[in-house]
Amino acid sequence: MQKILVSDTISEIGLKKLLEAKDIQVDIKPDLHTDELKNIIGQYQGLLVRSQTKVTRDIIKAAKNLLVIGRAGVGIDNIDIKAASEQGIAVINAPDGNTISTAELSFAMIMSMARWIPQSHSDLKQGIWNRKKYVGVELNNKVLGIIGMGRIGSEVAKRAKAFHMHILAYDPYITQERAKQLGIHLGTIDEIFTQADFITIHTPLTKDTKYLIDEKAFSMMKKGVRLANCARGGIIKEEALMKALDEGVVEVAALDVYEKEPPLDSPLLKHPKVITTPHLGASTQEAQLNVAIDVAQEIYHYLKNLPFKNAVNMPALSPEILHHIRPFISLAEKLGVFISSIILGAIEKIEIHYSGNIADQEINILTRNILKGILRQHLGVAEVNDVNAPLLAKKRDIEVLEIRSSKTHGFTNLITVKLKTNIEEKFISGTLLNGYGPRFVNFNGFTIDILPEGHLIITDHIDKPGIVGKFGTILGKANINIGTMQVGRNRAGGNAIAFLGIDREVEASIIEQLNQVENVNDTFYVEL
Ligand SMILES: NC(=O)c1ccc[n+]([C@@H]2O[C@H](COP(=O)([O-])OP(=O)(O)OC[C@H]3O[C@@H](n4cnc5c(N)ncnc54)[C@H](O)[C@@H]3O)[C@@H](O)[C@H]2O)c1
Ligand SMILES: O=C(O)[C@H](O)COP(=O)(O)O
């Protein structure tokens, strides 16, 4: 039974897929204190959160059995992705489900700022009829600066266009072609600061966007600019915003998110020109249902080894791509297990060549599986998975090289894994033979045809009469049956190899006996 902890308020209707799964237990415990979460997280394979639960390195360290963290929403800044990746925990979010709701709230903020709706509403509720104080501006013909032209930014742009606003967007990661498609003008951040009548922010909080709107930015802005942030606190430097409001540079600010949440002691809450909502961007019935359905489905798929698309710390594979690549995944891992089991010394470099058809595929997942196969021999099965394998290699200063080539080498597809240690260099090549499945086809230059399955003994020896017979005698005495055998040599009397497929696991003492046979250089046992 796999256990999932839901530690924030997430739509239970949306979680149906997980709640109805017979072999999954879902515990719903919103509003857990950090210490309580730390105490119980060790029991769970899955953790489902929104933005409230802070999944810190400390929590992740305590999460000994955690396989996946699901975020019912977009922002993942409450999750220590680096710590999760290092521990091999996949992080999956639900980026699409709350786009419209957040775009609509952002637009509501823009309209509220234009017409002083919250302030005049609040006055009137207190019996103050003040028509002169609340003269607003039209949106018509105004310049709307959008910082971050992703899902939400694009939806805000569509709505603003309907109001005949001119859109000036800044997003270093979108192309002119995309801007043209959206019917917007792409400019620099400085152009936004100097030209926009309204500015709305839709980027994630990153090291590049932290305090993107600071004193310098405010000093460039048009006097009377209206500024909305429904993205993340910390993109606007709040101290600088207070000053800009007091100096009249910013006429009105609308904030849904804050540097510290809840911002109960922030002076911004008391400022008459600041409109505030308590992080409500995604708080609609529709968005909450959408993100819960999306994340529940993704977590279910992740736990059941089915295709998933929104992992933030590993590549997403569509069912179509997965269909093509899936048969190669097990071959890739076996190539990794094999080569690292038969090499001596500390690994310095891993070179992976993808040739033929496979070179055009999404190979990142194959590389991850090769690295997983290699590193598991040294670090243990529990320590290494698809998520953390590249990071673990990097941490150990192992150089990893991926080389794609259209050359076929006689096979429609071929994966070669070359390992260099401080002592030696070896390689193994494998292919998927149409109709026959995976095969190892070359080992260190020796042509072979090995089904990569079960128990294998591999010897490196000198080609002399009687050697193979001696192997048979030693194994026979130990009651170990040889099911398959292949030998190869570079020339008569030269270097030779033998691959013996045996029926059961073999003890180290038997390998030692094989190693003692005259003219044998090395003997290895591999289980695939
Ligand atoms: N208030 C809420 O409740 C709420 C709800 C949903 C999302 N959000 C926030 O909104 C953000 C945007 O959501 P989205 O779904 O549109 O994400 P998205 O990934 O689709 O879009 C983000 C855009 O920001 C751009 N960007 C990144 N760094 C930038 C930089 N330095 N300068 C300019 N642009 C940059 C990216 O290229 C991307 O196009 C999320 O990261 C989340 O933090 C808040
Ligand atoms: O990043 C998001 O998806 C939003 O900030 C929503 O956060 P919430 O799920 O805590 O409302």
UniProtKB/TrEMBL annotation:
Xref: SUPFAM superfamilies: ACT-like, Formate/glycerate dehydrogenase catalytic domain-like, NAD(P)-binding Rossmann-fold domains, Serine metabolism enzymes domain
Instruction: List, alphabetically, the Gene3D superfamilies matched.
Output: 3.30.70.260, D-3-phosphoglycerate dehydrogenase, domain 3, NAD(P)-binding Rossmann-like Domain
Keyword set includes Coiled coil: no
Q: Which reaction does it catalyse?
A: (2R)-3-phosphoglycerate + NAD(+) = 3-phosphooxypyruvate + NADH + H(+); (R)-2-hydroxyglutarate + NAD(+) = 2-oxoglutarate + NADH + H(+)
- Any one biological process term the GO annotation gives: L-serine biosynthetic process
Q: In which pathway does it act?
A: Amino-acid biosynthesis; L-serine biosynthesis; L-serine from 3-phospho-D-glycerate: step 1/3
A Pfam family recorded for this sequence: 2-Hacid_dh_C
EC number(s) stated in the UniProt entry for this protein: 1.1.1.95
Which family is this protein grouped under?
Belongs to the D-isomer specific 2-hydroxyacid dehydrogenase family.
Q: What does this protein's UniProt record list under function?
A: Catalyzes the reversible oxidation of 3-phospho-D-glycerate to 3-phosphonooxypyruvate, the first step of the phosphorylated L-serine biosynthesis pathway. Also catalyzes the reversible oxidation of 2-hydroxyglutarate to 2-oxoglutarate.
Stated name of the protein:
D-3-phosphoglycerate dehydrogenase
